[in-house]
Each structure stands twice: as structure tokens, then as C-alpha cells.
Specification:
It comes from Nicotiana tabacum. The protein is mainly β and 253 residues long. 8% of the residues lie in helices and 36% in strands.
């Protein structure tokens, strides 16, 4: 096997010699060489569009005895935004490769593997983010989306960006984040809202005018202390529109 290196946006690329063959269900070892990265990276398959199906978080913690450059969070939670197609990915890639045109839009976006309850037949599988009131959480966002830039927001909660692509940043508090394909963003979430209400974490695409998947994926933030007594729907966040370039630019400023 060959050594590892980094792709754009802190993705961990595992370079494997083409003459190495693996059987389904088998295992192999790969040595990963890091330099000064600290925070959230991710690994993924690197053949065609296979990274849309095989991927995961790769977290680099501070050296022993070294604190975070921010208050230590109560809990850390990876949040992977991805895409899902009803058809086999290889067939999809062969199709648009042969035509020379644009790839077919995905059938759903997902949060930690689940499309969310705005899609048919996925209500029972919606990812639930359980939190406690008055705590600080570190949400490690990763975008495994192939092409789309994504707006992400939690209703009634702000997010404070503290790291991007395996490197800490000056804290930046925003009502939403915009994450690009392959990017990782570390965000502090303070749980300071009413516990008897559920809140949506929602993500949808920002588009530059081409065709795109215009659906919205959701997860549900729930406070452990109380149940949603009135059984009302979770509060939905105000997300920028699909074509809101100013919102995309303002997040980065």
C-alpha cells in the first residue's frame, strides 16, 4: 500500500496500490500520517463517487494535557450531511459519464444516514440529537455531499464556528452555517432554549442556478429533561433560500 495524504478540505485520502485486492467483509490496515491537524477530518472511499457511500469522521484530539482553545464541551457529536440515490452509484456515474452531461440529482439529503421526516417513509428513522439544558456541545459537521453547498441551521439556536478542516479558527457565531462539499466545520452549540419543545436541525442546498436537489433533510434536537407535552411539530428554522448568494457570502465574512 501507499502512504496517506490529504485532499482538499481536510479529507483523508487512503491511497491503495491498484494491485491490492479486497474481499467483501475483509479487513486491512492503513497507516495514517498526520502533521499539525487538530479537530475534525474525515475519511472516504476515493474511487469515482464511492465516497458518497463509504465515509466516516476522523477526529484528532488535543495532545494529552493540552486543552481545547475553548471551554471543554459537555459532549461531542459528529453530524454527517450526505446524499442518497435510489439507484446504484456506479450505474449513475456511468450514465452521466457516457452522456457528458450533469449528474442526476440525488433523491434525498441525509443527516447521519437518515433523510428525516420530511421525506416519505423515513419519519421513524429520523436522527434525534438529545441534549441537556444549560450545556455546551461540540457539533462536528462533515459534508459528504458530492456537489452542493449546504445551508445548515438549528431552530432557535446559534452555532459558533471554532474550527474548519482540522484547524481551529477565531470563534464566529452565526444563526446558520454554510458547508461546502468535503468540508468539515466544528461548531459550539449552547442549549439554552425551552426543553418542552422540539427543534429541527435542517439542511438544504445553495444553488448557483443549475439543477439541484431542492429537498430538505432534517434531524430533531430534543432536550432530555422534558417531553414535548403538546405533541406539536418541531420548530422549523428559517433557512436562506436556495439562491441567496448574500447569505452564502455573509456566513464567510
Amino acid at each position: 500500500m501507499e502512504s496517506s495524504n490529504h485532499d482538499i478540505h481536510g479529507q483523508m485520502v487512503l491511497n491503495i496500490s491498484p494491485n491490492v485486492q479486497f474481499k467483501a467483509g475483509g479487513r486491512f490496515k492503513q497507516k495514517i500520517i498526520l502533521s499539525d491537524e487538530e479537530g475534525t477530518l474525515w475519511w472516504h472511499a476515493h474511487s469515482g463517487w464511492q465516497r458518497s457511500t463509504v465515509h466516516g469522521a476522523l477526529i484528532v484530539y488535543p495532545k494529552q494535557g493540552t486543552p481545547y482553545p475553548f471551554p471543554k464541551p459537555h459532549r461531542e457529536i459528529p453530524i454527517v450531511i450526505a446524499e442518497w440515490w435510489k439507484e446504484d452509484i456506479k450505474k449513475l456515474v456511468d450514465e452521466f459519464g457516457a452522456s457528458g452531461g450533469q449528474s442526476r440529482n440525488s433523491d434525498a439529503f441525509t443527516v447521519n444516514g437518515q433523510p428525516g421526516d420530511l421525506y416519505p417513509c423515513s419519519k421513524n428513522g429520523t436522527f434525534n440529537l438529545e441534549v441537556e439544558f444549560g450545556k455546551t456541545y461540540l457539533l462536528r459537521f462533515i459534508s459528504a455531499v458530492m456537489n452542493e453547498l449546504m445551508f445548515v441551521k438549528i431552530a432557535n439556536h446559534n452555532l459558533t464556528v471554532v474550527g474548519i478542516d482540522g484547524s481551529y479558527t477565531k470563534p464566529l457565531t452565526r444563526e446558520y452555517i454554510m458547508i461546502t462539499p468535503g468540508q468539515s466545520i466544528d461548531c459550539i452549540l449552547k442549549t439554552n432554549q425551552k426543553g418542552d419543545q422540539y427543534y429541527y436541525l435542517a439542511a438544504r442546498a445553495y444553488s448557483n442556478g443549475t439543477t439541484f436537489d431542492n429537498t430538505t433533510t432534517t434531524a430533531i434536537l430534543k432536550y432530555k429533561e422534558k417531553e414535548n407535552k403538546n405533541s406539536s411539530s418541531p420548530l422549523f428554522p428559517y433557512l436562506p433560500s436556495y439562491y441567496d448568494t448574500s447569505a452564502a457570502v455573509n456566513f464567510q465574512c
